[in-house]
Amino acid sequence: MTPEAGHGRTPPPGGVVRMLLGRVRQSGRGAAAAPPAAGSAPPPPPPPPPPPPGNWTPAESAELFRALTAVADLHRPEFLDQVLAFAGRQLDDAGTPLPVAYHAHPRSRIWALVEAVDRHRDPDAALRALADALAGLRGDEAAVAAFLDVAARLAPPGRLPGPRLRAVLRDLDGMRARVPVSAADQSLRRAVRPGESAALRGTETVAEMVLRLSDARSPAPGDQDGAGADPADADPLVLRFLAELAAVLPPEAGDVLRGHVARIAEELGIDGATREALAHRGQPGAELAEEASEAPPDSRVLQIRLRETAPGKHEYALDGTLYDRTAAGLARPRRRAVGSPVALRQLRDVGRTCLVDWADLAARLDDADQVRVEFLLPWSLLDHPVERWLTDGHAYLVGHKYPVVVRSLDRLEQPAWHRDWAHRWRSLHRTGPAAARQGIGWLSLEAAPPSFTPHGGVLHLRGRDGEVRAWLDRNPGTHGLGLAFAYDAANPRRALGLREAICEGVPVAVWRRDDGDPAELAHRLAELADVPDDFAVLPARLRIWRRAAARDDATAMDNQLTLLWDDPECVFRETPLAAPTAEAPGR
């Protein structure tokens, strides 16, 4: 009987040799480990290590999968390799393609791509890199646009880590009691620092506020708003907002939100002292020291700026900054902005709500004894009736509540024009009342009527380049102008004279927007003769004139006056560190 006969079968040729070799290998494996106890079964193999935890929920992963399967050509290996190489160059300086396990079936390959992104060391960055790759290679496809929307929602670019941001939004949505938008607005006002902009439209839900604040970026150093290095880098505004919001929520919901703030601060590497300050935000007494140090100054100015987004486009970026006016100049800027550009046709509507939305700036402005509202305008808006913007929901005109003037944004942004500007301003304030009145010249388009006999000289414009400059050279004491016509940015004949005067440094100009009788305006200015510091109080006196007129009377001159009052000393300037002065040898 053969050795295998007991098993009922005959080994094939060479089977005995293979069987013996197999036994030798088994004995070799056993020699490397402790021999098992007699009669015991061999130990089971160790379980495989668990896969790393995913970044997204199963539903979110399935949504990504569906969006990617809709992209044309992504099932083709050559195109997928191109996408992975493109994404890898954004994720790795070495340009290593995003690693994805190979599968023969196209849908399996796409699912492997979802898993590779989900388990990447930085899943949000990997998803954004994949989105950028597809946008660059197939950006004109509708399916790619849909995928980009999904990617932006799952990995929003911003201050907060994506998983934590989604957890915050889920908890806000899941709270038993809806978070009032009014409470969120108050929390945001307490969280915003002086000079910092939240860049919200004012129509967002609480979740949208969190998303937009997370996506906000600090102003770059050297931004002309004067922010320089932004202290918000230490504790982003979105964290301060969430900490303030936690303080006004019911205790259980507030604790959940405070837990998120603490974990986010730790993940962002925020220092311990700042984390402690975040934990105590909104609690009684937390801001007493800060409020005590903010005693209102004697003078404040609110500057509202409208800047053209592109020449001739008639679309404007709108922001406002409140300053304390001190002996050293403007200080402590507090800035707000409208998130999206404003079209020319929308300006009147925006004027009804803008200052209402910036009620915190108006409240601080009211704390000071002396106030002024200044509109910094480009050439195209110098004739806009800014004094008719509203301060509240009860149709209270800003020009009735405050002295309101316009300023030239173009001159402010042209340093080459500043020397003559400052010289003429000093000349205005150094002269006595009689000389000041003589220093107001007039520009006219037509022959002046007999009733028009102003104190200063009159230049009849003929439309020649340089005629205002030559006239100012012949009248060096001229520091202000009256226009005997309405300024019109679209009419060169009515615009170039004032623009040339502003370029030459004239800081004060006044005109009627209704193109009415200039003699009436000249007579009104002559009333200042009996007022001490006559032209220095012109903005305040103009407010009195406006208040005396019936607000809806379009024929009243006082409802049609524009005052350009451009104070070169009322400009916010950054203070760079002074370089050390080199000492002479031997000192």
TrEMBL record:
Domain vWA-MoxR associated protein C-terminal: 331-568
A Pfam family this chain is assigned to: VMAP-C
Transmembrane segments: none
Region (Disordered): 1-59, 278-298
Biased composition (Pro residues): 41-55
Species in which this protein is naturally found: Actinacidiphila bryophytorum
Top-level lineage group: Bacteria
Record field: compositional bias (Low complexity): 30-40
Protein name (database record): vWA-MoxR associated protein C-terminal domain-containing protein
InterPro entries: VMAP_C
